Amino acid sequence: MDKKNSVFIATSLDGYIADKNGGIDWLHSIPNPNNDDMGYVKFTNVIDALVMGRTTFETVCGFDVDWPYNKPVFVLSNTLNKIPDSYKEKAFLVKGTLTEILEPIYEKGYHRLYIDGGTTIRNFLKADLIDEMVITTIPILLGGGSPLFSELPKKLKFELIKTKTFLNQVVQNHYKRKR
Ligand SMILES: NC(=O)c1ccc[n+]([C@@H]2O[C@H](COP(=O)([O-])OP(=O)(O)OC[C@H]3O[C@@H](n4cnc5c(N)ncnc54)[C@H](OP(=O)(O)O)[C@@H]3O)[C@@H](O)[C@H]2O)c1
Prior knowledge:
By secondary structure, the protein is α/β, with parallel strands linked by helices.
């Protein structure tokens, strides 16, 4: 099966994924009475595993909900020594260069990966390892915070596959890497 690294993320109008305090409550600033998941479940149904940065892992662990993933989660960290016992069968610590990290994940048969976390996505983009991005834009200017994008060693072309509007306020663009 073809390998595919995908991003599915929400950003502010000014391109941040977390505010200046690392907060993400603004993600819910648009009333969503029917809890439209904006394609999230459909997206997660076609991935084999997640690769996320330590900060995003800890953010998710801090949510007051059950563990939200039914696929293996590979957590990137150079500072964590182990995954807390309560997440033992669900999350797995990985370290090294992106190539070193990805090889054993592919060998286990996980080919379609959901890449999550600001630093992580930026590092994957720097190495031109992102194949598709679904970016949901919330109409708010945060004025600072954790940016989705940063400088790249080279230009990366993407092709627009689909645009959807949700709740009359939120635009979701689906881009595919044009190689
Ligand atoms: N808007 C959204 O939809 C959305 C989605 C996801 C996350 N977020 C938010 O975005 C913020 C995440 O921010 P973040 O920029 O800190 O990113 P992150 O990618 O979640 O975590 C960064 C950490 O991952 C580890 N890491 C990254 N690349 C690595 C590599 N190649 N090897 C080893 N470790 C690596 C490092 O951990 P160590 O320091 O332990 O080495 C690094 O400090 C959080 O506030 C989160 O809530 C928002």
